[in-house]
Amino acid sequence: MSLIKTVFVLFATAAVVLIFVPLGLVFFIINIIGFKRLTNWVIYRLAQIWARMVVFLSGCPMTVTGREYIPNHGGICFVSNHVGAFDIILALAYIGRPFGFIAKKELLLLPGINLWIYLLGGLFIDRKNPRKALKTISLGIKRIKAGGSMLIFPEGTRSRGQEIGTFHPGALKLASSSNALIVPVAISGSYEVFEKNYRVNSVAASIQFLPPVNLETIPQQDRKILLAEKLHSEIEQALKK
Predict the structure, then answer these.
(1) Distance from C-alpha of 105 to C-alpha of 94, rounded to nearest angstrom
(2) Which residue in 213, 224, 142 sits closest to 183, CA to CA?
(3) What residues are paired with 186 via a beta bridge?
(4) Which domains does the chain have, with CATH numbers?
(5) Which of 24, 37, 116, 229 is the most exposed place for a label (fewest CB within 10 A)?
(6) 57 vs 52: CA distance, rounded Å
(7) CA-CA distance, 225 to 241, in Å (whole number)?
């Protein structure tokens, strides 16, 4: 049954991708000629529909809590633990407002996917080149200050279902430098959905949005370190409940 579901989910997803690639090109052109705000909203809603379709087809019992902590307007930085690749799908399905995220530059090599990451507000980062990485982070900071939102995973890599890893203070520069409202996000179960055995498994998964953290409550001295510790602690506690 798991194998049949995997084939069905992959087929349905591939069909959607084939439809969305030409749409992506159209939106890319519309975006360039000056209708960025409209296209951003439409693109996010399409991505949200796709993500919810994937969650539905996976058959995973989902628990979503804390969405009342997400403001409808203003700059936000979502900070989440990183369990598996399914995390982005859960974020697209349930955050409820457009957001960008930092993607590794290797994803630029994936036709179609690279276009949609760009249209969704994703920023491609070259972690091996500090100067280019800093420029990418600066773009994210500007986006948040302009009222947009970004999602970051300060562990730096997927924990693959294991306990939450260390939050790297440097990864929180996007949040600390933008003075954004920070919404912690706790995700569990997403690794077991697919990556554990590379078959779609209908396992329970959850995404919890926690009360926002205001940077003004964090001392200026050693702010990134203190912020990393606070967010790690809050997300870890949420995952234990």
Answers:
(1) 25
(2) 213
(3) 208
(4) 2-240 (3.40.1130.10)
(5) 37
(6) 9
(7) 25
